[in-house]
């Protein structure tokens, strides 16, 4: 999951539904659940509580959790903290009703369509980079290559017959 894109999508959706500067969010509490180093990997789990408050004073608070596995301890802790806060923000925004959920689904469809178009464009561009002609030249079609017939039975010669008789 791309945490930065997820966070941006949540903020854009909340701004669209509630209005810019008409809501705020706060990480109320955040606790590391575990940090384990297994071989060359570091695994971290984190829990976050996020509060979203509207301009009129209404608010909701919810919990989020995220576990991260990275090559370094610092990166693992960072991703677990950010991921759990984003997960909590998503959950608390969804508690405000269906409008947020519908906007998030609409935004996701637009992103999926844009990504599909980008993939299609990159495939077309890579096809254009392939040269039309190959460096290998064919001098004669295969149908014009002379065929050599082989006999399936061995023709015994005198030396072979003499060896067999001697046994």
TrEMBL record:
GO cellular component term of the entry, any: nucleus
Species per Swiss-Prot/TrEMBL record: Acromyrmex echinatior (Panamanian leafcutter ant)
Family: Belongs to the RAD52 family.
UniProt protein name: DNA repair protein RAD52-like protein
Entry keyword set: DNA damage, DNA recombination, DNA repair
Superkingdom of source: Eukaryota
GO terms of biological process kind: double-strand break repair via homologous recombination; double-strand break repair via single-strand annealing; mitotic recombination
Pfam short name (any one): Rad52_Rad22
């Amino acid at each position: 999951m791309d945490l930065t894109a997820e966070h941006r999508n949540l903020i854009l959706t909340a701004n669209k539904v509630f209005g810019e500067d008409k809501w705020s969010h706060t990480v109320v509490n955040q606790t590391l659940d575990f940090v384990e180093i297994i071989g060359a990997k570091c695994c971290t789990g984190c829990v976050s509580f996020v509060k979203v408050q509207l301009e009129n004073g209404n608010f909701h608070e919810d919990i989020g959790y995220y576990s991260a596995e990275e090559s370094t301890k610092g990166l693992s802790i960072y991703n677990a903290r950010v991921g759990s806060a984003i997960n909590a923000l998503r959950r608390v925004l969804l508690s405000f009703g269906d409008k947020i959920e519908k906007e998030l689904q609409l935004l996701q469809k637009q992103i999926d369509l844009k990504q599909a178009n980008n993939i299609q464009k990159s495939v077309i561009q890579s096809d254009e980079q392939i040269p039309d002609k190959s460096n290998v030249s064919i001098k004669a079609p295969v149908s014009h290559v002379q065929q050599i017939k082989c006999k399936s039975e061995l023709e015994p010669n005198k030396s072979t017959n003499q060896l067999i008789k001697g046994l």
